[in-house]
Amino acid sequence: MEKDDKQKKNPGAPPNNVVALPTRCPVDSCGKKPKKMHFCEEHYEWFKVGLITKKGEKPKDFDKKYAAFKRRKAA
Ligand SMILES: [Zn+2]
After folding, report:
1. Is the pLDDT of residue 60 over 60?
2. What's the confidence (pLDDT) of residue 15?
3. Ligand 1 centre and the CA of 59: distance in Å?
4. Cβ contacts of residue 69 below 8 Å, gap of 6+?
5. Residue 39 above 90 pLDDT?
6. Where do the structural domains in the chain lie, given as residue ranges?
């Protein structure tokens, strides 16, 4: 049964379990090419002001923060 050896070295590991570096901005369905870190320019700014985590996740009070952020920007 030597033929099976290679497959058995990684039992249970799904083939696509590799954590790839994101090649697209991870925020929502943005999908733009990353400019800074892994965010596009706009979402990097979001990250800088604390609107999203570095994973691109939104906090519970995102809507409130985002409204304040937009107000600040418009001012
Ligand atoms: Zn983006």
Report:
1. yes
2. 59
3. 16
4. 46, 49, 51
5. yes
6. 21-74
